[in-house]
Amino acid sequence: MEGSFFVASIVTRRPVRRAAVAGAVALGAIVIPAAPALAEPVNVPGVGTFDVPNLPPLPAAPAIPALPGQPPLPFQQAITAGQQALDAARSKLGAPYVYGATGPNAFDCSGLVQWAYRQAGRVLPRTSWEQAAGGTPVALNALQPGDVISYDGGSHSAIYAGDGQVIHASTSGVPVKYAPLYSMPIFAARRY
């Protein structure tokens, strides 16, 4: 009799378990609420688009009108051709002096000035005398970095580097270097 009770007990329990599981699944489907609806996707520039739940739409930002005739802010000012030429000349510090050389690996004085300004998109005359005669005259108390300094009656050219210094290709055996502004007699200062 024990054996028959055991078999009846197994047979009885299986349908009960199945019914309980089926009822729980059906009950869960009814009781579990639906997920909340998602708002419009939010785009974060440079990051990506995200779906953020329950976010009200943001109003459009008002346009900022441009002010005509306003000068650029200090951090937006354009770099002058003189500054670009000075930066180019600085990149050649230590390059050898070679008479008549116009770069990019060796220079004479006017060749360095001409090459540096060419990097800034400006065409300057080839010789130091022509460079002393060109451009716009500049008073020594109004020098700006990148101005062309002519020495010894126009026989030598350099680029003003600021702080009382010039960059130049001085003579044979001496590489492109800084020198004091007043290391030679100044003939003219020009701005290109």
Main sheet properties: 6 strands, antiparallel
Order of helices and strands: HEEHHHEEEEEE
- The gyration radius over C-alpha positions equals 40 Å
Query: What is the overall shape?
Result: elongated
State the name of the first-level CATH class of the domain at 81-191: Alpha Beta
CATH topology tier name of the domain at 81-191: endopeptidase fold (from Nostoc punctiforme)
CATH architecture of the domain at 81-191: Alpha-Beta Complex
> What share of the residues lie within helices?
25-40%
- The computed structural class is alpha+beta
* Number of separate strands: 8
Give the uncertain stretches in residue-range form: 1-12, 16-36
Number of helices: 4
CATH superfamily of the domain at 81-191, by name, is endopeptidase domain like (from Nostoc punctiforme)
Biggest sheet, strands in spatial order? 3-8-4-5-6-7
If you average the pLDDT, what whole number results? Answer: 81
Strand content: 15-25%
How many angstroms does the end-to-end distance come to?
Answer: 118 Å
